[in-house]
Amino acid sequence: MNAATTIDIPALIDANRVSRTQVWILLMVALTVVMDGFDVQAMGYVAPAIIKEWGVSKAELGPVFGAGLFGMLVGSLTLSVLADKIGRRPVLIGATVFFSLCMLATAHVTTIPRLQILRFITGLGLGAIMPNAMALAGEFSPRRKKVTLMMLVSCGFTVGAVLGGLLSAAMIPAFGWKSVFYLGGVIPLAMAVLMYVYVPESMQFLVLKGRRLDSVAACLRKIDPSVQIDGRTRYAMPEVKQDGVPMIELFREGRAMITLLLWVVNFMNLINLYFLSNWLPTIANSAGLSTSTAVLVGTALQIGGVIGTLLMGPVIDRVGFIKVLVPSFLLAAVTIATIGQPGVALPLLFLVVTMTGFCIIGGQPAVNALAATYYPTALRSTGVGWSLGVGRIGSIVGPVLGGELIRLNWSTNEIFLAMAVPTVISALMLVLMSKAGRGSSPRAVGSAGSLAH
User: Fold this and answer.
1) Which residues contact 378 (CB under 8 A, 6 or more apart)?
2) 403 to 63, 326, 365, 388: CA distances (angstroms)
3) Tens of pLDDT, residues 345-378
4) Is residue 405 a contact partner of residue 418, using CB atoms and an 8 Å limit?
5) Partners of residue 6 on adjacent β-strands
6) Domain residue spans in the chain?
7) How big is the chain by its Cα radius of gyration, in Å?
8) Dihedral (CA of 324, 325, 330, 333) sign
9) How far apart are CA 357 and CA 428, in angstroms?
10) Which of 128, 44, 51, 121 is nearest to 91 (CA)?
11) Fold topology of 6-450
């Protein structure tokens, strides 16, 4: 009688080329992240049109921006923990359906208070997308390409923001601002159906939970048709099941210091990312640029982010996170300060905004990938979700702070000089993270031992 075979799922994925099944899964998840980015940034792009149509001030939209981001914070913290309990797939699909319906409802809002409430509710669903997308992407990717593939999936957020800018610039003059929300609601519904049909649950998650092992076998056969699986096959995982409260586990086994530093990096970077994404078109419009040109300035920020993500991923796979992210954040401090200088020519403005997007928005997928590679499977969604969730506090502070500084009549130069400070803090936290990683046990550092190579 033949002995029972044991299959190490991560090792099998590492030993094979990326299959068509994995490519399809990554593509479906990435397209969902695209719509996440489109819908999160939609408010920033339609803001000038709403200000004009409703006759409200710029400052009145600050709480609206903040409400959506606060909803994302709550969604990131709560639904990421739920996903580590019941699975990435059901939370990802359910959240997609939820935020798409909320986007459709937003097109029918006519007052600032109602808009504020609905953006908060929409944010609950939007906040669950990135943690689960990153967890699924990492768990279907081979180690040698893990950071690159996770960053490509995460880049979908920025691609969605770029598409949002380009489409909004064309759609708002032709069809009105409501058309942006209609588009942002219909497409995610279609994506949810496609994911329900084609995207399986994480195999590592199912093995750790001891659930639906027949689904694991079916997925493995698609990845490697030569694999031999029968009723006696066992699955090995280089991790143990975590039975404690997921959030508390983020601070155990030597993980506390890097967890806290990750939270600070996310907080600081998302202050800048969301301040720039939400206010840059409006500030540019107030400086005398046409609405369409102001929207294109905001779009340049997102285009820089796409370029940054595409270029950073392969480099990080070779040299580590620290050697890439620290110089990027320091460069961002210079470019952000330059944006606010008086008399900047339009070509130079587009250049420095694009470079800022390269560093800040392109750096955020790398920070997400850092969290996803650092935490084990049982904590991965929680780790990414709480890192992003705490960062969402910064994403709320950024737009609201921008509104308050405008209300206090700070000059554009003063506002952008102040916003350069968080990028320097991010760089410092990453340097401290590298030192903490070297001082941690190999088990605690895990796959993030390649922080600085």
Assistant:
1) 84, 208, 239, 240, 241, 242, 246, 249
2) 8, 29, 26, 23
3) 888 989 999 999 999 989 988 888 888 788 777 7
4) yes
5) 234
6) 6-450
7) 22
8) positive
9) 20
10) 128
11) Growth Hormone; Chain: A; (1.20.1250)
